[in-house]
Structures are given as C-alpha cells and as structure tokens.
Specification:
By secondary structure, the protein is mainly α. It is built from 1 helix and no strands.
C-alpha cells in the first residue's frame, strides 16, 4: 500500500511538473501571439487613422 502510494505520488508529481512546463510554454506562446495581435491591431488603427486623415485632407 505504501509503495503504491509513493509510486502514485511520484507519477503525480512528474505529471504535474510536465503539465507545469507545458503550461509555461503555452502561456509564453499565448503571450507572444497576443502581443503580436495587439501590435497588429494598433498598426491597423494607426493605418486607418492615417487613411482617414488623408481622406479628410
């Protein structure tokens, strides 16, 4: 019983650490994608504002 429990705990901790590293990679990728997306939106808004100013002129 104790051996099984320690094995289970080892597997659980190993899976948890792997899951944590995967979560970190996922968060980093998500953050990069979001910053790229926000930058794209900002550039698009700036571009549309520039177009609007040109049309207004």
């Amino acid at each position: 019983m104790t051996v099984r429990f320690s094995l289970f705990r080892f597997v659980f901790l190993h899976a948890y650490s792997v899951n944590l590293s995967f979560n970190l990679i996922y968060l980093l990728t998500y953050f990069k994608l979001m910053t790229c997306f926000v930058r794209m939106i900002i550039n698009n808004v700036r571009y549309e504002c520039g177009l609007w100013m040109v049309v207004k002129w």
